[in-house]
Amino acid sequence: MQLKDKTAIITGGAAGIGKGLVRNFVKEGANVLFVDINEDAGLELEKELGAAAKFLKTDITAVGMEERILTEALENFGGELHILVNNAQASKPKLLLDVEQADLDLSFNTGLWATWKLMRASYTHLAKTKGTIINFASDVGLEGVPNHGACAMNKEAIRGLTRTAAKEWGHAGIRINVICPGTAAEDYKWWRENHVDEAKELEDIAPIVVFLASDASQYMTGQTIMADGGSIMLR
Ligand SMILES: NC(=O)c1ccc[n+]([C@@H]2O[C@H](COP(=O)([O-])OP(=O)(O)OC[C@H]3O[C@@H](n4cnc5c(N)ncnc54)[C@H](O)[C@@H]3O)[C@@H](O)[C@H]2O)c1
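Above: query sequence and nicotinamide-adenine-dinucleotide SMILES. Below: predicted holo structure tokens.
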């Protein structure tokens, strides 16, 4: 078990990639406080996973959400925090010239600002445990994809924040990396279609995040890790 006895916070854990993360973290021995606005899906996952997973219905754009989330994680799971995963994100696709302030607010409030507030609130706890943070970026920021300008601006800001924190907080023993999920390259899609049993939906991302959360990646910080079946190859 790669995350035995670790306590993790995962945002946006009720659905999508986050749901796969919560399941995999529990499977690897972690206790997980997961946060989402989707109450039905959150409670269902909590029921499925038992005592190691605790769901907290919270909007990560709400004032003071970071203290509430930290308190809930520490009170439920032994007073220590080892891993913070900033996975939740909402955004509305629009062409740049149609983007309004409300669209930017949606992207930045659920992305950059929530990520930053949770990072800042977790700092002292992660410094005590020599813990780690995993933030989420996107191919829309790396590549510049039409219709996704608001999300792209926000996701690239998260990468800048991650690099700075990796340098400033390294002395405290905190590692911070970015994972960048995406649609797989054509060759990898072909492989998946022809190896259905081996390729499990949504489980592609989770083992990579588990690795980043585990001590096995202790010599990695400030990095952007592509989890996209070879679609984008960073240089
Ligand atoms: N799926 C992809 O192909 C892809 C590609 C690039 C980047 N990403 C990134 O990966 C992460 C997960 O993506 P996904 O596809 O699983 O997203 P998703 O939309 O399926 O799930 C996001 C989760 O966050 C929750 N959420 C949204 N707003 C919230 C709020 N205000 N407070 C609390 N929870 C909130 C949603 O309810 C949902 O459960 C995101 O950061 C996304 O930008 C995904």
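The chain has a mean pLDDT of 95.
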